[in-house]
Amino acid sequence: MEGVLAVCGEVGFRETSVRAILEHSGGHRAQFYQHFESKEDCFAQAYAVWIERLCVSVLEAAATTPGWEAGVREAIVRLFQFVTARPAIARALFVEVQIAGEPALARHEAAVERLAAAFDSARADIDPTEAPPEATGVFVVGGIESCVCEALGAGDPGRLWDTLPELMHFAAGSYFGKEEAEGAFERASILLERERARLTGAGEEVEER
Amino acid sequence: MTELRLIGGTALAEPAEAEAVPTLRLPPGRHGIPADLVRAHQRLRLLEAAASAVAEQGYGRITAARVTELAGVSSRTFYQHFEDLWACLLAAYETEASRLCREIEAACATLVEERGPIAEADRRGRARAGIAAALGFLAAEPDIARLLSAEPPPQIAALTGARRDLIERLGAMLRDVLTDPAGATPLPGLERRLIGAALALVSTRAGGGPQRLLDLEPELSELLLASL
Lengths: 209, 228
Known about the structure:
The complex is a heterodimer of chains A (about 210) and B (about 230).
Chain A lengths: L1 H10 L6 H8 L3 H7 L3 H25 L4 H18 L1 H9 L6 H18 L16 H18 L10 H13 L1 H24 L3 H4 L1
Helix pairs in contact in A: 1-2, 1-6, 4-5, 4-7, 5-6, 5-9, 5-10, 6-8, 7-8, 8-9, 9-10
Chain B lengths: L14 H6 L14 H27 L2 H8 L3 H7 L3 H25 L10 H21 L1 H8 L7 H22 L11 H17 L3 H5 L2 H8 L4
Helix pairs in contact in B: 2-3, 2-5, 2-7, 5-6, 5-8, 6-7, 6-11, 7-9, 8-9
């Protein structure tokens, strides 16, 4: 199952043939079609497994860190660790999924909604009269995802680390406004300066699950 | 006048006819219509068909054959206009991206006639007019909304470059409106995050029909202007 994502992430979904998937993963054509209806179906099933792992890992990072802002920061750090450790899989999950057909896209949207709901825990700290728009969660997830896509598209996932303060500004600002955004930016900048080695180090955590 | 009818809606008297024009096929064979006009008309039909094919098949499955079929031209005609499928999609993308930007600029320009210090309320109003114009344009043309908002295959550098250019252009407009002439400038790069997020939101909402896009205006304005 990992094979289809690795191949699609390397050469692109359009260019990936069933033959190429089998060359990577082993097995025969007939076996492939016993398990999957098509390349799209195979991609969608592999996508479901890996996006679930990634979501669980990222949500766990947030849940085990007290406070909304610090939780979001740890979640983004966990995401970046995954992307830099497994760029091919990440390209499949974030970039190729966009062109891999409806079944994979539907799973992508479900994951976005799930993460958006987690971001929405911020609402507990906001006066209902000043509640941010309903779409805020999806908006924030989309912004973070577009940042990851940009870095992967440029072939340089390592540069993601420098975007951490900017992303914290964006996420906190979307929920709490400008002042909170500037505070979140400052705190992320300081953390990055002090602990860059620790943050960028532990890369394989998602895979070991 | 007869010739102009073939390529543009503006020269037409009847609105109903104007809508029908882009997909109208020219009569085959000898018809006395100048060759360059025939070519221009074919090109327009191909660009329109490219957007429809992306909406129908997605970037993952789209083929040049489907584009020619939707445009009602021969494969030979297709390759007279474009080197390959991606050249055609790039031309369609750039054409529609420019139209979108012009719509936004026009909506903003009607609100602010002269340059000079602009009060925050005015800047906010200007931005909202631009956002409403963008959503109106995309809601009226769902195929173009899909074409412009969906991520193209990363291997097609020219197309991803065109998408990046659009994000830059929209970002520059947003930055312009977020910048307080009297004081602080917004964080560098923030506008790209905001535009990326807005495109992602449009992309997920575009499937729900035109009204869902139009209804997005107050929310999207609030989100894009949160740091104003």
